[in-house]
């Protein structure tokens, strides 16, 4: 079955190329050239992934992302001409699954779309047993996290990263391994993505955070 990708992009030349490559990659596409159009198209449940340009004529793409996230776990890849660290981190904090900076290779973009969707399928089929690490409890089925019994809100990727590490207590994992496992592709250039998510998890989980830095190597969860 073909998956439908909503391309939110106001530059026609870019949208044309992206749609062409997605079509060749065996995806269906829809196009929205404004934030308002994107919001309307997002009502359609057949949309399986969103490529979201942050610089829209009528709207800030981050606001569209925020709205998508209040409604559920639809995969989103943020596409932007802005390469500022702030936008990148904001996009990831708001729960984007990946981040691509213009100019990008359309082939690479399609590879990332596939990686995000593969990851999505893997997550859906993991065994749903709750995992406990110290005072932190994760429920993979409801995707709820509790610290000392109190709910903590995590983004999708924060949850996936934490779940992956605590399922392998004591095992040291490199940033590349974590990118591959949680984001679905190895990418040394974006290894700071992992650091940003670890920092967020430490902030949200406080002293209960079971994740440790292994200098020069990567991260591990306590135990094992
Ligand atoms: Ca734009």
Q: Can you offer a commentary on this structure?
A:
With 224 residues, this protein is an alpha/beta fold. It has two domains: 119 residues, Response regulator (Rossmann fold), CATH 3.40.50.2300; 91 residues, Arc Repressor Mutant, subunit A, CATH 1.10.10. Helices cover 42% and strands 22% of the residues. It contains eight helices and twelve strands. The strands form three sheets. The chain has a five-stranded parallel beta sheet, with helices on both faces. Helix 1 crosses helix 5, helix 6 packs across helix 7 and helix 6 packs across helix 8. The longest helix is centred in the middle third of the chain and has 19 residues. The chain is elongated and about 50 Å long. The structure holds calcium ion. Calcium ion binds next to loops.
Provide a short characterization of the protein structure.
With 224 residues, the protein is of the alpha/beta class. The chain is 42% helix and 22% strand.
Structural class: alpha/beta
The CATH architecture of the largest domain would be: 3-Layer(aba) Sandwich
Q: Regarding CATH, which class of the largest domain?
A: Alpha Beta
Task: Give the termini separation.
Answer: 41 Å
Count structural domains.
2
Small molecules (ligands, ions, cofactors) in the structure: calcium ion
Q: Over all CA atoms, what is the radius of gyration? A: 18 Å
Put simply, the count of helices is 8
Strand order, sheet with most strands: 2-1-3-4-5
Order of helices and strands: EHEHEHEHEHEEEEHEHHEE
* Global mean pLDDT: 86
Assigned CATH superfamily of the largest domain: Response regulator
- CATH topology tier name of the largest domain: Rossmann fold
Determine the strand fraction and express it as a percent band: 15-25%
Query: Which descriptor suits the 3D outline?
Result: elongated
């Amino acid at each position: 079955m073909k998956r439908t990708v909503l391309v939110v992009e106001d530059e026609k030349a870019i949208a044309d190329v992206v749609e062409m490559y997605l079509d060749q990659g065996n995806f269906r596409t829809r196009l929205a050239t404004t934030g308002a159009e994107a919001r309307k198209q997002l009502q359609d449940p057949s949309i399986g992934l969103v490529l979201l340009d942050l610089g829209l004529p009528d709207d800030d793409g981050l606001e569209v992302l925020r709205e998508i996230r209040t409604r559920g776990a639809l995969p989103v890849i943020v596409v932007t001409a802005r390469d500022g660290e702030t936008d990148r981190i904001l996009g990831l904090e708001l729960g984007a699954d990946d981040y691509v900076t213009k100019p990008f290779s359309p082939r690479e973009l399609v590879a990332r779309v596939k990686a995000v969707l593969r990851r999505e399928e893997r997550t859906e089929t993991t065994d749903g047993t709750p995992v406990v690490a110290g005072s932190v409890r994760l429920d993979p089925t409801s995707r709820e996290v509790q610290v000392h019994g109190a709910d903590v809100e995590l983004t999708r990727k924060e949850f996936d990263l934490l779940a992956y590490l605590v399922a392998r207590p004591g095992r040291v994992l490199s940033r590349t391994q974590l990118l591959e496992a949680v984001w679905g592709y190895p990418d040394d250039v974006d290894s700071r993505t992992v650091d940003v998510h670890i920092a967020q998890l430490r902030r949200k989980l406080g002293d209960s955070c079971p994740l440790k830095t292994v200098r020069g190597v990567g991260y591990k969860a306590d135990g094992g």
